[in-house]
Specification:
With 379 residues, the chain is an alpha+beta fold. The chain has 3 domains: 90 residues, 3-Layer(aba) Sandwich (Rossmann fold), CATH 3.40.50.20; 55 residues, 2-Layer Sandwich (Dna Ligase, domain 1), CATH 3.30.1490.20; 198 residues, D-amino Acid Aminotransferase, Chain A, domain 1. It contains 11 helices and 22 strands. Strands 10, 11, 12, 13, 14, 15, 16, 19 and 21 form a 9-stranded antiparallel sheet that branches. Strands 3-2-1-4-5 form a 5-stranded parallel sheet, sandwiched between helices. A 4-stranded antiparallel sheet has the order 6-9-7-8. Helix 1 packs across helix 9 and helix 2 packs parallel to helix 3.
Length: 379
Amino acid sequence: MAKQISDLKLGILGGGQLGRMLIQEAINYNLATLVLDPDADAPCKNIANYFECGSITDFDTVYKFGKKADVITIEIEKVNIEALEQLEKDGKMVFPQARVIRLIQDKGVQKQFFKENDIPTAPFQLVNTKEDLLNSNFPFPYMLKQRKDGYDGKGVMRINAVADLDKAFDSPCLVEELVDFEKEIAVIVSRNSKGEVKTFPMVEMEFNAEANLVEFLISPSTYPESVQERAEVIAKNIAAALNVTGLLAVEMFITKNGDILVNELAPRPHNSGHHTIEGNYVSQFEQHLRSIFNLPLGDTRAINNAVMINLLGEKGHDGVAVYQGLEKIMAIDGVYVHLYGKKYTKPFRKMGHITIVDQNREGAIEKANLIKNTLKVIS
């Protein structure tokens, strides 16, 4: 008799909020979870069946940890790929596959993949040093992105003119044309080993310019069906070209002239899918589990209008977190609070998220603005 999901052990590299929410779904399937994270107080620490404090970038640590699990997944891309490749050779199931993580770890390789597979994306150029930038004929202004290790707005800067090159990164980078976009959107696509594929409805994102992080996420989108279908087809084409198993978040721009350009990929649950816990029939976290355990994929349809707000640490506050205004916002109908178990706050640190579900889209946005002005993470 084949093993059931509840007979298997899931190893998760990274013990942050994404791992925490994945474990919260895994509990519903009696699934044993093992977590490796360098932070002794990681958000997953107290809810995983087994927690190990250790480096997720060290070969031996990742390899030994992986041997304890049946299926291995990630909640962050910055992991030791060589260890995952060896675990795959040893017969362990690693999803997303090590080759997919390797490709996505490097934004330059990712962009070349888009070009080779006719995926629409902004014009770009690869450079290795600041000297290369000085010799580049790429037109100003442009975006400069470090090829590796950038996340949550880090490792990205706008270069407006030659004078800005003094502060440019002196490392392998991606130079990208500045996209005059109307809206940033995202589509999360799921794919299991049988090749079954489903997309979550397209969402729209509003950014906090100072933190360079998503501030609001609105689901479902009000763009015409034809635009949403184009975005979903692009996401499905990428998942097929990668032959990925698991979730793939595809971040895109809609330009002022109606084109859709792919920005970046994340092969895991993603900030652009947090609203699905209450807003859709299946959450992104449950869908990731269904995908990597090769189970039938769930119903991705939106149940209602949902707005998600990232709860970020306030500027000027660094210390033990205090959630000011929490009781006030809990008195509002349709409000769902998700705190990430992080003891300490600092400016712009992701401390939680709030989802507002409402039959009326404008009503949900109104509540979101009220919550944004009421709930503060201070120290």
